[in-house]
Amino acid sequence: MSEQEKFELKIRHAERAHDRNWEHVKFLNEAAAKDARESVKLLLAINGGAAIALLAFAGALIARSTVQKQEVILVLGNLSWFAAGVSAAAVAGALAYFTNFFYAAMAALRTARWEEPFIEETRRSNRWKHVALVCHFLGVAAAVVSLGLFLAGLFEVKSAMLKLI
After folding, report:
1. What distance in Å separates the CA atoms of residue 150 and residue 11, rounded to the nearest whole number?
2. 9, 69, 80, 109: which sits with the fewest CB atoms below 10 Å from its CB?
3. Can you tell me the distance from the alpha carbon of 129 to that of 131, in angstroms, rounded to the nearest whole number?
4. How far apart are the C-alpha atoms of 61 and 68, rounded to whole Å?
5. Model confidence band, residue 82 (pLDDT cutoffs 50, 70, 90)
6. Separation between Cα atoms, residue 139 and residue 51, nearest integer Å
7. What is the mean pLDDT of residues 38-66?
8. How many Cβ atoms sit within 10 Å of the Cβ of residue 102?
9. 130: how many CB neighbours lie within 10 A of its CB?
């Protein structure tokens, strides 16, 4: 095989490696965005649904003539758990967006080379990777906090309702 043929073969290998890298980045970005979007929707739904149910329950309590104002306040005081859960879910959604944005910036700033390794990290791509990782972990933490607030709210509502009996 001549030097020219070896060079052309190396170029084809490099092009395939570049294409595989971009396809991989595209696939992961789409999957992560979809998963983050669905997780945030779920967290918003469970916290928002709990808040709506709590308001409906409080309305039913108010409609009863035998209920004391303090009893309604006891139940409604737990609304803040679910409101905070909705807020944490919104933060998780925003961080999911930034995570994807920074990972895409990282991938775009890698250097495509014609020698092995065909894709090389740069100082700038590494910087964006670290920012993306921070956003990623903070986003997961915000989602866990949202779920935790939902569970805490459930236990507090249960406690409040038991006091009404």
Report:
1. 55
2. 69
3. 5
4. 9
5. very high
6. 23
7. 86
8. 20
9. 11
Nearest partner of 53 among 140, 150, 124, judged by Cα: 150
Mean pLDDT over each residue of the chain, to the nearest integer = 87
At 129-146, the pLDDT tens digits run 999 999 999 999 999 999
Residue listed under structure tokens 């309305």: 59
pLDDT > 80? residue 50 = yes
**Which tokens belong to 139?**
């986003």
Amino acid occupying residue 9: L
Amino acid present at 11: I
CB-count exposure of residue 103 (10 Å: 0-12, 13-18, 19+): buried
Sign of CA dihedral 80, 86, 92, 97: negative
How many CA atoms within 13 Å lie on the side-chain side of 135? 20
DSSP type of residue 119: E
Q: For residues 72 and 40, what is the distance between their CA atoms, to the nearest angstrom?
A: 30
Q: To which H or E segment does residue 72 belong? A: helix 69-76
Beta bridge partners of 119: 112
Closest C-alpha among 103, 104, 97, 118 to residue 37: 97
Between CA 40 and CA 20 the distance in angstroms is 30
